[in-house]
Structure formats: C-alpha cells, structure tokens
Amino acid sequence: MSRYLVKSFGCQMNVYDSERMGDLLAAAGHDPAESPETADIVVLNTCHIREKAAEKLYSDIGRLRQPRADGSRPVIVAAGCVAQAEGEEIARRAPQVDVIVGPLAYHRLPQLLEDAKTARAIDTDMPAEPKFAALPPRRVQGASAFLTVQEGCDKFCTFCVVPYTRGAETSRPLADLVAEAEALVAAGAVEITLIGQNVNAYHGGIGLAGLIARLAEIPALKRIRYTTSHPRDMADDLIAAHRDIPKLMPYLHLPVQSGSTRILKAMNRAHTRDSYLASLAALRAVRPDVAISGDFIVGFPGETDEDFADTLSIVREVGYAQAYSFKYSPRPGTPAAAMADQIPEALKDARLAELQALIATTAQAFNTATIGRTCEILLERPGRKPGQLIGKTPWLQSAYITAPDARIGDLVRVRILDAGPNSVEAEVLPLQPESAAA
Ligand code: SAH
Ligand code: SF4
Ligand code: F3S
Questions:
Q1: pTM to 2 decimals?
Q2: Nearest ligand to the C-alpha of residue 154?
Q3: Separation between Cα atoms, residue 165 and residue 354, nearest integer Å
Q4: Ligand in closest contact with the CA of 300
C-alpha cells in the first residue's frame, strides 16, 4: 500500500487543484497519509505569487529529502505555479524532485509518477485538451466545497505572474459544472464557492450570473459564493443577481490593489478608483448589507505618500469587512519588476502596518454593525472550548457558538451578540415552530 499527501501553498484554486490531485491519486489506488513522515508520495502544490510563497518549496524539499529512520524518502512532486514558472530551475536547484508538473497538466500525474521510476518527469505544458475532462469524479467531502469554473488570466497586471503560470482565460462548459455541482450536493455539500482567477469573466455560454441562477435551482444547495472577481468584469446582471437570488450570499471579494488611479494605471488594472467605487455603489443599492472584501498591494514602484494616502482613504470610504494586504514583491519576468523607483523595504513595512491597522478598524466596525442581527451560520469546525463550534455567517464572518448538540455541516439559526475584528459571537435560536413540532 502506498500513501500520498498533497500540501497546498496557494490560493483557493491551488486548494481545489490539491483536492483534485488527491482524487487522481486515490483513483490510482493510493491512500491518504496522515503526515509527510508517513507518506510515500508528497505533492508540494506551490504558489508563485510572491517571493516568500515561492521560497517555501525549497525549504520543504530540504526537509523531505532527509532520509528517514528506515533510510527511505518519499517520492517528491513539485506541482503548481512555481513548477510552471521555473520547472527547469527546480530541477537544477533541487535534483531530488521526482516529478515537476504545472497547474494545467496535473491530470497526467499518475503517468508522470510511472515515468519517474526511471528518470525525473517534467510536464509544464499548457495542453489544449481540457484537464477537467480527464479527472476522475470528485470524492465525498464537506458541507462547503470549491468548484473551479474558470481558469487563467488575460489581464496582465504589471505586477502579477498568474497570466504566465495559469495561461489564458478559459471557462468550463455549463453542463460539466452543473454535473459537478450536483455530485457535490449529492455528497453532502450545502454551500458551493465558484472559483476562478477572474471568476466573473466566466463565459461558458452564459455569464457568471446565469451560472449562479442555474445552480440555485439545485434544491439541496443552500448557499452560493464566488471568488475572485475583477473590477472590470462586474457586469450589471451579476450585480442584479445579488438582489434576485437569495442563495447568493451577500459578500463580494473585489480586489482594488490601490486607491490611487495613477498607480492603478501603472499596474495596468483597467479600472480606476472611481469606476471601482461606482461598481460598489451599484451593488450596495440592490444589496445594502453586502460585505466587501479586497486585496491591496503597498509599495508598488513609484508609490508616493500621496498615492498611499489614496489607498488609506479608499479603505475608509468602502469600509471593508475584510481585506488582504501585501507588500509589493517583484516577480521575475513581470513588467513592474523592471520599473524604476522601487520602494525601499522599510517603507513598504511601515505602509503595510499602517494599512493593516486601518483595515482592522473597518473590519471591527463592520462586525459591530451586525450585532443584533439574526441569520444562519454554516458550521465548519470545532472551537477550542468544549461544546464550542465555529460557523460562517452569510457575510463570511467566523461566528462562535456554544451548541453541544449541533454538528459540523449543519446550518443553524443564530443571533449575533458580540463582535471582534476577526470574528463574532452568537447564540443559537430555538427552532422555528414548524420544524420544532417533529
Ligand atoms: N485575480 C485577482 C488576484 C489574484 S492574485 C485580481 O485581479 O484581483 C491575489 C492577490 O495577490 C492580488 O489581488 C494581489 O493583491 C496580490 N499580488 C499579486 N501579485 C503580487 C505581487 N507581485 N506582490 C504582492 N502582492 C501581489
Ligand atoms: Fe493577476 Fe491581474 Fe490577472 Fe488578477 S487580473 S490574476 S492580479 S494579472
Ligand atoms: Fe499562487 Fe498560482 Fe494561485 S501563483 S495565487 S497558486 S494561481
């Protein structure tokens, strides 16, 4: 018997790919391992987005190649976006790696593992044939599932590696997605998050709004989310879907990157501060309670104090419920890496700290404003205290409840009682009379 472990280093699509590689390995007769120490095959599913993310690959390989007590070491697979971007360099820097496979070719993993028995196998093609068609059915998993609907990016922001590691934008056919969603729901999923590098650029015959409307017809599916959206593709019908489709959760992750239109132009973002704010205003007009989340980069080349002040002011103006912020990391081969006026690290650090402190205050304000609301939460994991469970509200807040009788995967009705910057506390409400009658 041989055992495998897949470790994810990246975004939700990277997590989805890890799960699918697990499906492939299980279909090929391997069993999941509990830890890297007991695995015969270790897949490192890498991320290239920032330098720090990419470097994790090499530290993990260093650990894995140390012989164990019995002299063995696992078969090492480098997968994901670093494998795609610098497969040859991995082969040079880490000759112990047995298989190198990119994000568009991993359906060939079982064959590559066979090939690797004789010599290192590399596959960083961007094959024309769809990988999804070649993957086995998904295995049973939890109440909340990811579903990749769109992959790749044609936008070429000047800081970003994704168009190079994931290739051009492609959308999966509607029929395949409906079938995969129905299988997930049959296996117990009550929430599906549609994912893609530019998920709202989905165009499988119908747009993302049409896909959401179609999936909302699956009776046992209770919640639909989508991420990550690009501001340029916030179509009117998608905004209207937030008014018309109750199963679509009131949450939007819409990265802006900077509040300065001058910097947005240098980033080649194809949106301005004002067009971004206009999209959010349109959304809030139809769904006033919507929670907004975003991504920010500080210290992009040429970013002045004034540009950074614009970023702080857009955070205040939007009142983000959540946001991720990063120091600009120059990536090999991207236009911004070659720009003049790179910002010193110390200044990036200071700006990041200031931005994160501000985001914590807007997140706290958002959470505080939800105190007193009643809503459903989807229970995801146990808390630290006995009887405590953590679930997600419609606004994607982590809500803590004490409910010894509830189970992971349940949707329970709660009232929000208290709020911190990263979570809320809630109490379980008694069942509605009609369901309590049973
Ligand atoms: N497609 C999404 C973002 C995908 S990458 C969009 O366009 O918004 C996820 C986030 O990583 C980005 O939103 C950005 O904030 C960050 N990021 C990407 N490249 C980066 C870089 N070179 N340095 C720092 N952060 C980066
Ligand atoms: Fe990267 Fe820009 Fe594409 Fe997002 S839209 S994946 S930031 S190139
Ligand atoms: Fe990273 Fe690739 Fe996702 S670079 S963010 S794993 S698309």
A1: 0.94
A2: 2
A3: 32
A4: 1
